[in-house]
């Protein structure tokens, strides 16, 4: 027998067997190819070139996004866990093979920032699980869509693109985002759409959302903001007054920001500007009828025509009601007559007056009650400077302290009045411009100084009779008989002789004579003196009966005069 046909020795066979086992050992932990040789119930029998086949559950060949039946003869890739188990079968897995393949592909996509395809197949705490062709990733709820979605069911089981946000192979963690893909796609679409739009262009849109400040309008893949101030020329309190969700409308592109892709829209710009020629249409001082549209703390807005509103400031609402809320004077939707006070076409403002359509109550009062007229009213208030009296026409007049009494201090007289008292007064002056009415109570009676001056009885040097009103340590308060004047006689004016200058010599109600030492109508002062009267009488007696140089007193002179008179009898 030749050497070529010589059978291998036992040693050669052992060496070959060892070599075969070493090669098989090297395949463990890797993906290998195999052929389906049989399908038994729910298991596929796969030959991977080892001495025994392996079995893989059929469910590992199905799953989200994977369709089609497995047949005998199909070639598949599986992961070789172990060459054989206790039963002598190869331990293989289709899931692990797919996962291994997926991780390699996913890592490459992650490095290149490429999108990957996956299928959402389950909901977990905080989000969802996504099958990335064998690898399982986590999709946070915040990354599902650009806006929150209540029902994700339509998105489940559907192959769609995702962006890998984070990968950790050691821990087996993958985090993906669907929102990033949508935003990127949306940004690209927006850029393309914005590039085809121009400011001033009129386009069709659909209202998709309404906020306090405006409405978002879908222009066919890109949204524009229709601000509340651009919805109408008139005042719009809330966007829902003009538009509704789902409404189709034409809008004008006012402004485009090509960097942020923000688009500002307008409806009112499609209409003629009602403010053009406004000054000629609404001249100052002209009167118009309008509708109250809004009431604030500082006034009320009145619509004169669609798109044209004016403000009645609270100060222009009533002639007499100064500190009242506008809502107490007018109400929303009320038709009112107003007067144009000012028109500012630049600032688009019209100032209106409500009170100007009514007669000025101060003018009406001055016509009905000229200066000198006597009026009657209720004391509304007492202040440190006078009384306020309520008068006809819902106006107030003021009686100053100085006009309460001719003689007594106003601070003293005002205490005699209280709120609610009905009093009469004389109209002194009506200032229509300043809205002031001056009244006087003391003017109801004649001026005692004027009367006294007219009579001539109180000129300086005249002798008058006085009635003691009050006795004080410093002198006497007296009333001059025949007049309404009172004055004060100081202690040192009560007598010529010092020992007689005692106020207690007199009593209230007692009458006495005195000489007028001063009567000044301008300063309204009158002074009388007993001392001056005594000195005047002495001077007159001396001049008539004797000389004071002899040292005789007034009593001596009068006594001598009396004796001569008796002898003459």
Automatic annotation (TrEMBL):
User: NAD as a keyword?
Assistant: no
Where is each S1 motif domain found?
29-95, 113-179, 200-268, 285-355, 372-442, 461-531
Gene Ontology biological process terms from the UniProt entry: translation
Quote the Pfam families the UniProt record gives: S1
* A GO MF term: mRNA binding
Task: State the source organism's domain of life.
Answer: Bacteria
Q: Does the keyword Nucleus apply?
A: no
Q: Which GO terms describe its cellular component?
A: cytosolic small ribosomal subunit
**UniProt keyword terms in alphabetical order:** Repeat, Ribonucleoprotein, Ribosomal protein, RNA-binding
- The membrane spanning regions, by residue number, are none
Into which family does the record put it? Belongs to the bacterial ribosomal protein bS1 family.
The record describes the protein's role as: Binds mRNA; thus facilitating recognition of the initiation point. It is needed to translate mRNA with a short Shine-Dalgarno (SD) purine-rich sequence.
Q: Which PANTHER family match?
A: 30S RIBOSOMAL PROTEIN S1 (PTHR10724), SMALL RIBOSOMAL SUBUNIT PROTEIN BS1C (PTHR10724:SF7)
What protein name does the entry list?
A: 30S ribosomal protein S1
Organism equals Alsobacter soli
């Amino acid at each position: 027998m030749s050497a070529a046909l010589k059978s291998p020795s036992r040693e050669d066979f052992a060496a070959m067997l060892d070599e075969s086992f070493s090669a098989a050992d090297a395949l463990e932990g890797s993906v290998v190819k195999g052929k389906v040789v049989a399908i038994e119930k729910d298991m596929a029998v796969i030959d991977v070139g080892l001495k025994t086949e392996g079995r893989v559950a059929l469910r590992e060949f199905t799953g989200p996004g994977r369709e089609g039946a497995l047949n005998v003869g199909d070639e598949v890739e599986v992961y070789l866990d172990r060459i054989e188990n206790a039963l002598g079968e190869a331990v293989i897995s289709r899931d692990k093979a797919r996962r291994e393949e997926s991780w390699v592909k996913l890592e490459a996509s992650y490095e290149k920032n490429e999108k990957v395809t996956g299928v959402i197949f389950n909901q977990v705490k905080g989000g969802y699980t996504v099958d990335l062709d064998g690898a399982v990733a986590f999709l946070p709820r915040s990354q599902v869509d650009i806006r929150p979605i209540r029902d994700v069911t339509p998105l489940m089981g559907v192959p769609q693109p995702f962006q890998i946000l984070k990968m950790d192979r050691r821990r087996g963690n993958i985090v993906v985002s669907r929102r990033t893909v949508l935003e990127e796609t949306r940004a690209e679409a927006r850029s393309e759409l914005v590039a085809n739009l121009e400011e001033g262009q009129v386009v069709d849109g659909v209202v998709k959302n309404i906020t306090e400040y405006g409405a978002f309008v879908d222009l066919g893949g890109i949204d524009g903001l229709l601000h509340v101030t651009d919805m109408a020329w008139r005042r719009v309190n809330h966007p829902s007054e003009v538009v509704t969700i789902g409404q189709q409308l034409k809008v004008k592109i006012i402004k485009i920001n090509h960097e942020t892709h923000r688009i500002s829209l307008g409806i009112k710009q499609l209409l003629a500007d009602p403010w053009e020629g406004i000054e000629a249409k609404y001249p100052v001082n002209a009167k118009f009828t309008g509708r109250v549209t809004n009431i604030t703390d500082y006034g009320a807005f009145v619509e004169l025509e669609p798109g044209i509103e004016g403000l009645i400031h609270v100060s222009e609402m009533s002639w007499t009601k100064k500190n009242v809320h506008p809502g107490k004077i007018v109400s929303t939707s009320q038709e009112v007559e107003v007067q144009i006070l000012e028109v500012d076409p630049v600032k688009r403002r019209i100032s209106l007056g409500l009170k100007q359509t009514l007669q000025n109550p101060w003018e009406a009062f001055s016509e009905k009650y000229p200066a000198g007229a006597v009026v009657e009213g209720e004391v509304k208030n007492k202040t440190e400077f006078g009384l306020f009296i309520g008068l006809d026409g819902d106006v107030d007049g003021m009686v100053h302290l100085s006009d309460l009494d001719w003689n007594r201090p106003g601070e003293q007289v005002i205490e005699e009045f209280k709120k609610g008292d009905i009093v009469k007064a004389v109209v002194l002056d009506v200032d229509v411009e300043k809205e002031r009415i001056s009244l006087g109570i003391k003017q109801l009676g004649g001026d005692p100084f004027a009367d006294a001056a007219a009579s001539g009885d109180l000129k300086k040097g005249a002798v008058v009779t006085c009635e003691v009103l009050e006795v004080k340590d410093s002198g006497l308060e007296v009333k001059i008989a025949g007049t309404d004047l009172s004055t004060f006689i100081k202690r040192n004016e009560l007598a010529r002789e010092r020992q007689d200058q005692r106020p207690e010599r007199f009593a209230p109600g007692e009458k006495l004579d005195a000489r007028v030492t001063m009567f000044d109508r301008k300063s309204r002062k009158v002074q009388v003196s007993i001392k001056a009267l005594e000195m005047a009488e002495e001077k007159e007696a001396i001049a008539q009966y004797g000389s004071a140089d002899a040292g005789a007193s007034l009593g001596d002179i009068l006594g001598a005069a009396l004796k001569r008179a008796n002898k003459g009898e």
